[in-house]
Amino acid sequence: MRLRVQLVHWSRRAVVLTDTPDPKCPLCDGDGGISRDYGDPETGEYAGTDWEPCTCWDGTRRWVLLPVPRWFRRTSTHYSDEPPF
């Protein structure tokens, strides 16, 4: 299991700990899944891509570490070029 910290925007913002794909996985090469292109059976033209998750990663495995309060938002988009000291 390879963990990382991530900020998510579900119904409420939170800091979560998530699983990541194995970078040395021989099946998916660290992408977390395998994409397969498919075509239309009548014309043989490209019709889309299916994505199948790899066994080295579980994208639903997440643990909430810290819910971010609603009042803790950036309200101003003005950035100062003054030094902080």
Automatic annotation (TrEMBL):
Superkingdom, taxonomy of origin: Bacteria
Organism, as annotated: Streptomyces griseoincarnatus
Full protein name: Uncharacterized protein
